[in-house]
Write a structure and sequence with these properties.
This protein has about 550 residues and is α/β, with parallel strands linked by helices. A 9-stranded mixed β-sheet has the order 13-12-14-15-23-22-21-18-19, with helices on both faces. It has a 7-stranded parallel β-sheet with strand order 5-2-6-1-7-10-11, sandwiched between helices. The protein has a 3-stranded mixed β-sheet with strand order 16-17-20. Bound molecules: glutamine.
Amino acid sequence: MGSTKYVFVTGGVTSSLGKGIISASLGKLLQARGFSVTIQKFDPYINVDPGTLNPYEHGECYVTDDGAETDLDLGHYERFLNVATSQANNVTTGRIYYNVITKERKGDYLGKTVQVVPHITDEIKRNFQALGNDKNYDIIITEIGGCVGDIESLPFIEALRQFRWDVGPSNLLVIHLTLVPYLSAAGELKTKPTQHSVKHLLEAGVQPDILVCRSEKRLPVDLRKKIALFCNVNYNSVIQAIDADTIYDVPLMMRKEKLDERVLSKLRLGTKSEVQIESWREFLGRHKNPTDEVEVGLVGKYVELPDSYKSISEAFVHAGAENECRVHLKYISSDTITEDNVGEVLDGLHGILVAPGFGERGMVGKIEAARYARENQIPYFGICLGMQCAVIEFARNVLGLKDAASSEMEIDSKNLVIDLMEDQKKVINKGGTMRLGAYQCKIKTGTKIHQAYGKTKISERHRHRYEFNNKYLARFEKAGMIMSGVNPETNLVETIELSDHPWFIGTQYHPELKSTVLNPHKLFVKFVKAALEHKGKIN
Ligand code: GLN
């Protein structure tokens, strides 16, 4: 266990209060004082990981370098801290039970009755510490998903209660995120929901040390005093978190509220150094004071829930700031695009991004969007399925292979330009069986991809089953689609681009997963630049 300190973040009253952003913001502030920090998330659902979930359930599935399919909050942790996460950073109830049941089947419990307490809670506690095993972190922040009081989060809260005594009270603190709603009819902020949610925690034997209160309005002194009195915390441990213009304001807001100082003093850690956060402030300055703006269409089939494309929209925030340009994302449902209306739907956009996705639905619209961008010289960025659709479109309309398709949509086509590799054909289980995680890619010099990265060896993250069919490679290249990046071991095509187009790029991998505030992804930066140039041409 060493000298690692633990911060737990729980949530009450309602979900969606932003525990992930508060955790990431606190992590950022502690990191900016010179502490080594990591953040992990424990989710109370039974799926072993979110990889099999439809994006409408929990938003985007975030993929780590080691190929874990994880909760989208891990994306926030990486974007804020600029440090890679891994499988160990996201644990679900399903994984905990899976581990315990696997041990039980092996006979590891030596004839004992296996129970929630102590076996499930022991497994949870083992996982609370897993990240500290190979790296010595000063502070591990653990976000507990869901809401206190829910049946499903009980074992996590119970494990937390026990864990405080395992590591010693001065090595662990609990931040409880709660809501202080404003009732406009009464003209008042209300503390009762907070009192009740703290009561839930107390009933489970957990006293929160700090309360972070989400609210639309400032919390007056009296109200803070009341919350402190009823919830058993110090007055200066009642922290307000007012709705922010952007999630990237939250670290500075928490700094102002001294959240980091409260945490360090309660954990009996010195402040180490002042918060070094200049580059963050510079980023915010550029983000908030753009000198230009562009409109980019995001064509996808899960657009009713923008969280499905969280990493993409955040990558545009980073890349926009880098270009001092505000990127307005127009979410367009690929289901609504047809050959006849594509010009109307995509009219006036400065760039078109065709998003990742699964299954046949919406593919026709994506293929039409790729055609429109290619024919009209509009900057195009195809990510994963977006690259595959650009390949299919090119095969149909340039190579003249009218029935060209992906075996994901049309298994009977004679020209499966996108197809399953042999090893994928044998796969039966859906969970964790795609091509997942970081793979090397070798980039051809003199290509646009090379210009963007400025090097020939890169590593990017994948999440897909289907691949470009190399049988067709020569024909594509002859007609002007350059396969500018390939996997050096398997020769699989990882990037495509068009030679006679200002900016038409597709990537089989997901560049959005590696864009952070400090390291905006180069492809997004160049795409926004191309959109700005296109805007200059059409205006
Ligand atoms: N459905 C496609 C595949 O599995 C693309 C996946 C994606 O866009 N992430 O290959």
